[in-house]
Amino acid sequence: MDSIKMKRELESRLGGDERLITYDRENDQLRIESKKVGKGITLSLGGIVAKWHNEKEKAINEVVYYVEEGLKAMESPVQLTDHEKRIFPVIRSASFPTEAEEGVPFLTDEHTAETKIYYALDMGKTYRLIDSRVLEKEGWDPYRIKEIALFNVRSLSTSLKEDQVAGNIFYFLNTNDGYDASRILNKGFLNDIQQRITGTMVVAVPHQDVLIIADIRNDRGYDVLAQMTMSFFASGRVPITALSFYFENGELEPIFILGKNK
Fold it and tell me: What's the burial of 23, exposed, middle or buried (CB within 10 Å: 0-12/13-18/19+)?
């Protein structure tokens, strides 16, 4: 499988009278746009091809699902009033675009040097990032959105899976509800976990569908965590950061771990 074959495969699955598909040869990107709203999704084919070599058909199915649901969300009207329980914060990398393609700014907040907070309206199988145009249309104050979103994220489940490697304990939160990384904003949850930690507490959000909390008890633990976060970062549909964070006194501090293969 190469980019041209992947391009043809995706065109055949995602094409239709109501869609415009264009290919940017220079950047090896395929754009699928809804003619109805003039908005679309741009796919980097190189990354999809790389994932296909590991996951085959599953990789293509995931992309098709992501595009189909994303376009449906773009075509659906966004209404905040009476849908307050569907407003959530989402974590993105610091380099993620701060405005929509039309130049409309998203509602954002600073988080760490590596991450930024965006706000979204849950649409069922996907969500729409909230921008200034939506706020103006409904007359909402940004502070109200942020308050509601942080309240809602605290209501999400926080069940963890546990694994022990080389004397260190790793906890994983992976519900695939789109807001796993967002749980990093639930300070009460992080403080509760800190009570269990006997070593150093390190947190990671390599992509949007996983939160890793590590109880690092020896140097080998850092190495394991570095390899783990890089693996998740490379395989995630919405990568955030391969760096991890110390959690101390309620604050997150990015750290760089130089992993070693052993």
Answer: middle
